[in-house]
Design brief:
This protein is mainly beta. It is globular, with a radius of gyration of 18 Å. The N and C termini lie far apart (38 Å).
Length: 262
């Protein structure tokens, strides 16, 4: 059984638990069905996204990467921040902004940092990892990735995270985890962290070479190419091997306002 840390809504603390299956968990000696407990976002730090870290996402730019504004392939990790207003949790609705018809679904593995990490060598990177979680790094569809588009990526509720943080000891190989995105039950995207340009340990080495990561921070390894689109009332499910699944439904801002949620 995989060991994990979960945070329940209206609780100030995280709870240790064991994952029995995709449907059940064991917490404080009691068995719970995942769909019947109210899960909060399990992370406490800053969330950093990484652009173009899947081989396919860089290849998709084709010759554009050699022309302005890019001029050449990136030499280091390209980071951006998903600010706190974007944080959301398992089963929370994702607001679809007025005037926008579809959202880009960003299935991402999240590395949760366990202690202050500065200039970490890749052979020691695992020493700085608490575990792994799932994030939906949502964007309003846009073409250019030259400068991370805050207006398109930092909307309220655009980063559901969870459902829990699985301990690193429970993950056999984080560099070979299958990732699948289902929309309304239909498989719309499938990829693997084996296709990352920078592996988990290499990404930590490269990022901490120029900035410190702190306890509780989350480093998203990137979003695979051909991210699927979802519209109002679509149900989105992201699965990552050995971690679990993250589910949310896209709901129009207008409807959420009428229901008093926004």
């Amino acid at each position: 059984m995989a060991k994990a840390r979960v945070k329940l809504k209206k609780s100030d603390y995280s709870e240790e638990m064991e994952i029995l299956s995709n449907r059940y968990i064991l917490m404080n000696g009691d068995k719970y069905e995942v769909s019947q407990i109210k899960l909060d976002n399990p992370i406490s730090g800053t969330v950093y996204g990484t652009l173009l870290n899947y081989k396919g996402s860089l290849e998709a730019l084709k010759e554009k990467v050699y022309h302005p504004p890019y001029n050449e392939p990136p030499k280091g990790p390209i980071l951006y921040i998903k600010p706190r207003n974007t944080f959301s949790s398992f089963s929370n609705p994702v607001p679809l902004p007025n005037g926008i018809h579809e959202l880009e679904i960003g299935a991402a593995l999240g590395i949760v940092i366990s202690k202050t990490a500065t200039r970490v060598k890749k052979e020691h990177a695992l020493d700085y990892i608490e575990g792994f979680t799932i994030a939906n790094d949502i964007s309003i569809p846009h073409e250019s990735v030259f400068r991370p588009a805050i207006r398109h990526k930092a909307r309220d509720g655009f980063c559901p995270i969870g459902p829990w943080v699985v301990s690193k000891e429970s993950i056999s190989n984080p560099d070979s985890l299958g990732i699948r995105v289902y929309i309304n039950g239909e498989l719309r995207q499938e990829n693997s962290t084996s296709n990352l340009i920078r592996s988990i340990s290499r990404l930590i080495e490269d990022v901490t070479d120029f900035m410190t990561l702190s306890t509780g921070d989350v480093l998203l390894v990137g979003v695979p190419e051909n991210a699927p689109l979802a519209k109002a009332n679509d149900h989105v499910r992201i699965e990552i091997d050995e971690i679990g699944y993250l589910e949310n439904t896209i709901i129009s801002e207008e409807k959420l306002s009428l229901e008093g949620i926004l």
